[in-house]
Amino acid sequence: MNVGSHYSKMKRDFLSLITVSIAFIIALSIRIRPADTVFLPNGFVRFSNDALAHMRMVEVLLHNYPHGMFYNPLTNYPYGSIIHFGPLFDHLIAITALIIGLGNPSAELVNMIGAYFPAVMGALIVFPVYFLGKHLRDRKTGVIAAFLIAIGPGQFLNRSMIIFTDHHVAETLFSTLFILFFMLSVIEANRMKLSIKMIQHKENHAVKPILYAVLAGLMYAAFQLSWPGAPLFGMIIVIFAVIQYTVDHLSGKSTDYLGIVGIITFLVALLFVSPFIRPEMGISPYFYSWFHVLTAFAAVLAFVYMSLVHKELDRRHLKPVYYPLVLFATAVIALILLRVASPSSYIVVTSIITGIFQIHTGGISTVGEVSSIFYRGGVFTLSSVWYNFATTFFISLIAMFMLAFSIKKDKKPEETLVLVWTFIMLLAIYGQNRFAYYYAINAALLSGYVAARVLDLVGWKKVEATYHEKVHSVGELPHFLSKNIKAGHLLTIFLLLLLVAYPSYSLAMEQSQYTSGVNGYWLESMFWVRDNTPDPGMDFLKIYDAPPRGELFNYPDTAYGVMSWWDYGHEIEAIARRMPNANPFQAGIGGRRSSINDVNQPGAAPFFTAPSEEEATAVLNAIHPDPEKMAARYIISDVEMATGKFYAMTAWTMDTEGYYVPVQTDSGVQYVPGQRYYDSMEARLHIFDGSGLQQYRLVHESRAAPGYTSETGYKNVYNVLFGGNLPLTDTGYVKTFEYVEGATITGTAPAGETVTIDNTIETNQGRSFTYSQSATSDGTFSFTVPYSTQGPIPGETQFAVRPAGPYTISYGNTTQEVSVSELDVLNGNVIEV
């Protein structure tokens, strides 16, 4: 390369990187748009749900640096949870905080760094996307792809917004870097026909592809240490290798270059992941286990085997078509042997494949990110596709066919790699829409590929060449533009902006107005719980050892759980500093996993769907391994659990009939809550305020959200269909209840008389409701009541909801007032009247 052409190349690279840097600034500015809404005056940040879990681990990590949590007894009470999050993301935040905070960062600084971290990582992805596009086709492809990912909407945007401090953005960044460096290693190795002999002779130009392979291995390791499911991309590489080995063998080419870069990549990754392997986890793909070692070795063996088969068939001068047949036969035999020799390993492999690529049913299908991107409620739809990708999804499909045609003609391994990568991620979003934040990279890259091809069709490549040859200063630019840019060029750019860029940008600007942090109602309730309930006796900054296999963690006697739907487990742990029974790892949900298995395991789902107070209490008792203890002292409900999320609770039990019934209305048949819904524990608590319950009392409610929920609609249905008299007003968005023994009030009354006990309960929001029970006397009566009429006592719940006065017992013309102390309620004392 002469000096002139070298200078021209450097100039093009520099201008491209300047342009991509602008894309980075655009991407970052979109992601931090709602920054003024996420920081509270007390230094707290409205982190998203899973971000709270990560920031709690960062908090513990900084307190014990460099040691972090592996086992967390402060969630999924009374069992605790093994941490399945990768350690890298939390360490990156912690190290950044230590550097900026000069070794002693404040909580406010840590929160601020944590809040901005996903936005910066998300914006940084424009750089590997640019280089992917550049090496897939040219700089123009890379620049367009970089801008498209910068303004891309959907899950990739959402998961890289400010305060969405979750490992998903790290997954996307490191997986993209992994593909990039592996692509570069393959390109360079293929270009110079890298061979074993070249390495043995220590030829200098063999260093470059090997360096890229090492970097690919490092990025693959970083990816795995961000998400245990990263071997999915190892599978992508192996599938690509199978195809490329076959193409090269059929073309009579050496395959040494593939074997060398593949083996180096996976060995380097294994080297850096191995220290984090937990042998006691077996071969679980959800934790750092032997699974990650075995998959790396399997990939290395695959590359070695494919190279040896290539050489052996060449040595024997056998027909090239035998090569793919041998590989196919080997794969089939390997699966058969695996099933026979290690059924458990075979189940792990097949369950991973079906878990990712197959549409789910039952309770797991109610988890938003696990449902198919193409189906909603069992009906095919493209609405989620449009939300996540706009037009780039459809353009990526066109690009796949274009790539396949180009591969048939040119057989470039980098094109094969991108096509295989894209196709498998397309299958992944069919199974789980969560992979949309991965496919966003493919959609942007391939849309850039198509856009660049379209521009070249109208002569843009010639314009580029002329520009780099003729324009040497900014002053020459106007003359160049007027002479070389034609109407066809401008029209093409306008159409590409209109059809490719604008839909994405429009959606991104709409979606980035807000971010999904903890709402104010939950914050209010969590701060109240933290300050007004007994300390459970656990150190939230301590690293606890996991109990031996088969044993339970030894909690102090003061420990207790907080029952809520699994969505809110991280809020309860991280903000309220209490121990949830269920969490967003889908731990503690209970219910059924199969319609064949009719055992309704105790957990959040059977508790909230329980048809009576007695059955709900039995669930709390069954959760705890000690039959003398209850798994939860507090129950927290929000209006979403009582309305939109209630169906998910029933789905987890795989018993959904009767909760909603068809009703003929002026608008046709509509499904509304039925009697089974109103009998459920969730409705008894949230819709009826726990009135009439014997051992559950409302102790706090947040502000209401008038006009933003369906609460009044559910109450109206009850009044109309079931003769109720509920006030059609919105009550607390979040309600906190306490399970207590209850004071038992006994007395005598004429047999056959209807005896009623009631009280007016006043909440901390200035609202009042009637608590009431009735029973028919057989000569005596007995009521168990949960509310103390004499106020809280030190060391116990400092409840903000209390009776207006003594209980009133009435029958016939007789009335009597009864006062109940807090000790009576807590100890289950009997009061005779």
Relevant terms:
833 residues, alpha+beta, 5-stranded mixed sheet, 5-stranded antiparallel sheet
Description:
The chain is of the alpha+beta class. It has a 5-stranded mixed β-sheet. Strands 13, 14, 16, 17 and 18 form a 5-stranded antiparallel β-sheet that branches. Strand 1 and strand 2 form a beta hairpin.
What would you call the shape?
elongated
Give a short account of the largest sheet.
5 strands, mixed
Sheet with the most strands: spatial strand order: 6-5-7-11-10
Residue share in helix: 40-55%
Quaternary structure classification: single chain
Distance between the termini: 103 Å
The low-confidence runs, each spanning 5 or more residues with pLDDT under 50, are none
Q: What is the number of beta strands? A: 19
The proportion of strand residues reads: 5-15%
Secondary-structure content class: alpha+beta
Mean pLDDT: 93
The number of helical runs is 32
What is the gyration radius calculated from CA atoms? 32 Å
List the helices and strands and how they pair.
Blueprint: H1 3-31, H2 49-63, E1 71-72, E2 81-82, H3 88-100, H4 107-124, H5 126-136, H6 139-150, H7 154-158, H8 168-191, H9 196-200, H10 207-224, H11 231-250, H12 256-273, H13 290-316, H14 322-341, H15 343-357, E3 375-376, E4 379-380, H16 383-389, H17 392-410, H18 413-431, H19 436-457, H20 460-470, H21 477-484, H22 487-511, H23 520-532, E5 561-563, H24 569-574, E6 579-580, H25 604-608, H26 613-623, E7 634-638, H27 639-642, H28 646-653, E8 660-665, E9 668-673, H29 675-679, H30 681-686, E10 696-701, H31 711-722, E11 734-739, E12 743-748, E13 754-762, E14 768-776, E15 780-785, E16 802-803, E17 807-811, E18 814-818, H32 822-827, E19 830-832
Parallel strand pairs: 5-6, 5-7, 12-19
Antiparallel strand pairs: 1-2, 3-4, 7-11, 8-9, 10-11, 12-15, 13-14, 13-16, 13-17, 17-18
